[in-house]
Amino acid sequence: MATFTTATEAPQVDRTPVGQRDTERDLPTQPDPVMACDDVSIYYGDFRAVTRVSMTFGRNEITALIGPSGCGKSTLLRSLNRMNDLVDGARVAGHVTYHGKNIYDRDVDPIEVRRRIGMVFQKPNPFPKSIYDNIAYGPRAIGMKVSNLDDLVEECLTRAALWDEVKDKLKQSAYGLSGGQQQRLCIARTLAVEPEVILMDEPCSALDPIATARIEDLMAELRRDYTIIIVTHNMQQAARVADRTAFFTALADEGTGNRTGLLVEYDLTSNIFRAPKDKRTEDYISGRFG
Ligand SMILES: Nc1ncnc2c1ncn2[C@@H]1O[C@H](COP(=O)(O)OP(=O)(O)OP(=O)(O)O)[C@@H](O)[C@H]1O
Ligand SMILES: [Mg+2]
């Protein structure tokens, strides 16, 4: 089983809270890569859903993937932690690297990949268990060495900005929480197995604006310690939270005529929203398309 080298120190960057933050914080022109896609195409059977994507994901950054419905955002996101392995007929060509190692190599364990690269879904999906057991489940399932599980549960819930709301009802069912609380619980559950990267597929689309703002604040906090890659349909959200934004679109494949997802433009979020280089990006962000 291959091991991955973990990043050591986070870069010194501005951490002003979301909402007050100038999107032009001090970021390197090129991301300091934790993960990268190198010529990645993704197929469902013969259908090529995503075509030849190459991009890097920066350490301690939030990267947003945006674009019209069907352009392959979820498909690409799922390829970043081998979640597509679980989808019938899905196949990934090219390389997806994590600390330089192709996660699709034969000697890589997909379970370990998904521990290091966690995922939060569109609809909060807590287990039908207590709040406590939702957090404890992952570490127990993988036999993680934990000196004190109670402490770990508290730490994860604190990091996910949920502890104060649930500390007196840890043994109650997670289903008793509101949607926004459930989503923070799912984030806490992801943190419990000590990931480095967190993938989020439209994590706020089932939430009201207040719960959404809490998740956005939380993402800005988590960026100190984690790398976040988020799919969002909400362009204001991308503009608020993301350091870099990648715009995708779906174009008719030359060979088959099927629509396939392409990366159009990837840049600092401020550049994408203020000065996009590609007309297709401009049309999309100004609401003329999609
Ligand atoms: N399991 C699957 N089997 C076959 N085709 C699929 C599967 N999942 C997605 N697709 C197809 O792949 C393409 C990309 O889908 P995907 O869900 O990645 O798009 P998306 O950008 O996330 O869209 P949305 O914004 O609507 O969530 C679409 O044409 C879709 O129909
Ligand atoms: Mg999707």
UniProtKB/TrEMBL annotation:
UniProt cross-references to InterPro entries, sorted A to Z: AAA+_ATPase, ABC_transporter-like_ATP-bd, ABC_transporter-like_CS, P-loop_NTPase, PstB-like
Chain positions covered by the region annotation Disordered: 1-32
Domain ABC transporter: 35-275
UniProt cross-references to PANTHER family, sorted A to Z: ABC TRANSPORTER I FAMILY MEMBER 17 (PTHR43423:SF1)
UniProt cross-references to SMART domains, sorted A to Z: AAA
Protein name: Phosphate transport ATP-binding protein PstB
Recorded GO MF terms: ATP binding; ATP hydrolysis activity; phosphate transmembrane transporter activity
NCBIfam families per UniProt: 3a0107s01c2
UniProt GO cellular component terms: membrane
BP GO terms, sorted: phosphate ion transmembrane transport
Presence of the UniProt keyword Nucleotide-binding in the record: yes
Keywords assigned: ATP-binding, Nucleotide-binding, Translocase, Transport
Top-level taxon: Bacteria
